[in-house]
TrEMBL record, chains A, B, C:
This is Nuclear transport factor 2 family protein. Pfam families: SnoaL_4. It comes from Streptomyces durbertensis. The lineage of its organism: Bacteria, Bacillati, Actinomycetota, Actinomycetes, Kitasatosporales. InterPro entries: NTF2-like_dom_sf, SnoaL-like. Residues 18-139 form the SnoaL-like domain.
Length: 160, 160, 160
């Protein structure tokens, strides 16, 4: 708000970077949705970290793999798909190989009869790093979307 | 149809423009979905216009803000998320700072228990303008998707 | 897996190609969702092929149009929308005018009251070709997503 209007507020996202990041997630989500646990873990750095909605924290591929294996039974009869939208990409101004992202996530679960159920919606914030030309996830924080208390003026508050 | 096949029917959308427009919407939707009403209004030009599904018309940021404030009670216990897809971008051939867009919209409402409900689907048509390097919405027309009467041949009509 | 980590596993997708393919699908889906059957068929090559989930195969625009006309009655009172995500684009290394793609698909059906129903989720694999500067679909294979048998280690198998 305090910056002059002519100053871009955010670093520009090139089309090439946009395509690169979208393609990274397209591959990563195919792995998790096909229950390719090791393949999914390989899209993280060795000591990558995931903070799940609710606060559970997994650090390192081994812990990630163990956690996902433990959850496998719940996917026995459903096909899960993670849908993303509204990807924001913020390259680190000091290091083009570090990229902060955030995106909406909707998770469908289709059972054998074709019936689709939905998990609550989530917003995810990642830090990606480019190593040897490939993107990897360094960290991921998943938050379940919850109702917000809107910032309203005093008239609205007193009227409520 | 009447143009030769070698003539592109539409102006080419560069990757950079695609990323710019997607990023604009990713930020704009975060504002509306977090009930940041003033922040959302700031993504429109001062006298921007929205025509809602059903025909209600809002003109100018002040009217937009008042309308959104009046609607706040219905979001007290839900997290709303707008999901976009199939974005079409048509830069004005005469003015690269005027861009017509259209996109599909699906709106989820997640309650405190995590249950997801869906509003009807919509198709939105915007005119965006670039001012001081930043995109802003000049106008928006929102239409609820409704069944179409397919254009069928005479055999199909008489058989129906 | 056997390649050194420094070798990209996949050809790079430029931002321009990403935008071109997304724009192609945005137009193609508007045609199918508006029940513009001939217009939809025109986005395929003359002898294009579609393999539907379940195995039904349509070859050529005429067969495609006949099949879609036969299905029209089921869309009499619903607005259908195809939502895509996680688009993968793989240009043919030997021919830049041949592009393999794959994407997630979610199909909504909104009735006249605004109620939204969902078809099972699908994954689609296309081959696109560029002719006279325009993309066309050469072939499409649609698969309904189904539960997968995860590849688990021996401990997990014996414990199951």
């Amino acid at each position: 708000m305090s910056r002059p209007a002519s100053t871009p507020r955010h670093p520009v996202v090139t089309g090439d970077l946009y395509a690169e990041v979208r393609t990274f997630y397209a591959r990563q989500m195919r792995r998790v949705d096909s229950l390719d646990i090791e393949g999914f873990a390989d899209t993280f750095v060795e000591d990558g970290e995931v903070v799940h909605a609710g606060g559970r924290r997994q650090r390192g591929r081994a812990e990630m793999i163990a956690g996902m294996r433990a959850a496998l039974p719940r996917y026995r009869d459903i096909a899960v798909r993670h849908w993303f939208d509204h990807l924001l990409i913020e390259p680190d101004p000091a290091d083009p190989d570090v990229i902060r992202t955030s995106y909406y996530t909707l998770v469908t679960q289709t059972d054998r009869s074709g019936k689709v159920c939905f998990q609550p919606t989530f917003t995810v914030a990642d830090v990606l790093v480019r190593r040897d030309g490939r993107l990897l996830t360094l960290s991921r924080v998943i938050e379940q979307d919850s109702p917000v208390e809107p910032a309203v003026g005093s008239e609205e508050r007193s009227a409520a």
